Amino acid sequence: MEDNYGTLFLSMSTALSSPIRTEEPVSTFESPSLPGLRYSFTILALTNPPELLQKRDAESLVFIPITGGTVSGVLEGHVVPGGGDWATERNDDAWGVEARYQIRTTAGALIDVWNIGVLRNLEGESADADNMGYFMTTPVFRTATPQLLWLTRSVFVGRASLRDGGTAIEIFEVLPA
Predict the structure, then answer these.
(1) Quick one: pLDDT at residue 8?
(2) Most CB atoms within 10 A, among 4, 37, 59, 113?
(3) CA dihedral 130, 81, 160, 170 (to 10 degrees)
């Protein structure tokens, strides 16, 4: 037994006394190609004024009722009244948004929308929430209509902007590089 411990100790001390490698590893990293974006449609969600749900220190949660709206582009229809947007004013001067609502196409198909995003100032800006320059979202769509299943098989991003009485969201499909 003693011989095994002695051999182990000798191996560990040899390893610990070896010089430490200081040269940088060779990098084989190449910048990846960017995915593409294809414009799909625009959602104009009409809203009522926000209602305060919770206030804690510098953070607050408001509910913004969605009362209707329109959808135009490769998808045509209207926003079904009754959805909402839960917006959290964070202590880092940004807003986290989470909207749930539905779209009814002109052909009668129903699409469920779950849209999460961030609203914040761009570098150097100091605007209030109505005028912040960065408003991006990641909508997820669900539908049982066979002709619209393409909505459930791709990733989408939205570029949003606040409008008088609502929010406009330009929806883009993310394409492979």
Answers:
(1) 43
(2) 113
(3) -150
Do β-strands 59-73 and 77-89 pair in parallel, antiparallel, or remain unpaired?
antiparallel
Residue 93 structural domain? 36-175
Predicted confidence (pLDDT) per residue in 108-161, tens digit: 999 999 999 999 988 888 877 778 889 999 999 999 999 999 999 999 999 999
Q: Do residues 43 and 171 lie in contact, with contact meaning Cβ atoms separated by under 8 Å? A: yes
The answer to whether position 71 is within a domain reads yes
Residue 7 lies in a domain: no
Rounded to the nearest integer, the mean pLDDT of the chain is: 88
Show the tokens assigned to 156. 């989408």
- Where helices occur in the chain by DSSP H, the ranges are 2-17
Contact residues for 19 (Cβ-Cβ < 8 A; gap 6+): none
For the chain, what is the domain count?
A: 1
Rg of the Cα trace of the chain?
26
